[in-house]
Design brief:
Largest sheet: 7 strands, mixed
Function: Nucleoside triphosphate pyrophosphatase that hydrolyzes dTTP and UTP. May have a dual role in cell division arrest and in preventing the incorporation of modified nucleotides into cellular nucleic acids.
Distance between the termini: 11 Å
Family: Belongs to the Maf family. YhdE subfamily.
Catalytic activity: dTTP + H2O = dTMP + diphosphate + H(+); UTP + H2O = UMP + diphosphate + H(+)
GO molecular function, one term: dTTP diphosphatase activity
Low-confidence stretches: none
Bound molecules: thymidine-5'-triphosphate
Strand content: 25-35%
Cofactor: a divalent metal cation
Radius of gyration: 18 Å
Number of helices: 6
Structural class: alpha/beta
Number of domains: 1
Amino acid sequence: MLTVLGSQSPRRLELLQQIIPADELTVLPPRSADEPGFEGLTTVSAIEAQLRNVVQLKLDDVVDQLQQQGHLLSECCVVCADTIVVARGANDLPVVLGKPPMPHWQATVRDWFREYYSGRTHEVWTGCVIAVDEKLQHTIVKTNVTMCSLEDELIDWYVSTEEPIGKAGGYGLQGAAAMLIDAVDGSLTNVIGLPLREIRQTLKSLNGSPN
Ligand SMILES: Cc1cn([C@H]2C[C@H](O)[C@@H](COP(=O)(O)OP(=O)(O)OP(=O)(O)O)O2)c(=O)[nH]c1=O
């Protein structure tokens, strides 16, 4: 069965290649970059529902493209995902941090590091959907990430690497940000964009492979 990764993220492709052979894997990103936002959502359940919604919209877009290209959905397994950082703000309410806003991303990322990351623990959530034929399974995997205390000078240096651009929460655990992290509790691949162990389990349970 052909697995279709519905994502433009190079990190997700690298991760999925760990469990799916190259000749059984193809990439078809969603056409629309417009996603519903998380502004004003202050409860865990509302954020979970919106994340599921975002992932479902990506899936609908990719399935529509496959149908337009004349593919039989019964011969494809489609994987879509979305990653967000959920930090704790004032009154301990959850705050969603997505990709830093362009073009003036530097000030936002500096604020996030000072306010939400330095010496604190936040969560990284990846919502995933896997569709095999008529069957569909949504999951949200959560990982706790604790950063060490960060001086302004270290934050400025990290911003100067430009690594935050295009990454949820404005950092890349797989890159230079690794040196800012004290502890990761949960799935590492989930933070980078795809929880591989859970993806493999779901593929197996839906008979979409692998193995
Ligand atoms: C927290 C964190 C995020 N990220 C990345 C993973 C995702 O590519 C990105 C989150 O953005 P997403 O909006 O989830 O995904 P995307 O726009 O890159 O791709 P698509 O919508 O087409 O699937 O942040 C890291 O690479 N490392 C990290 O440590």
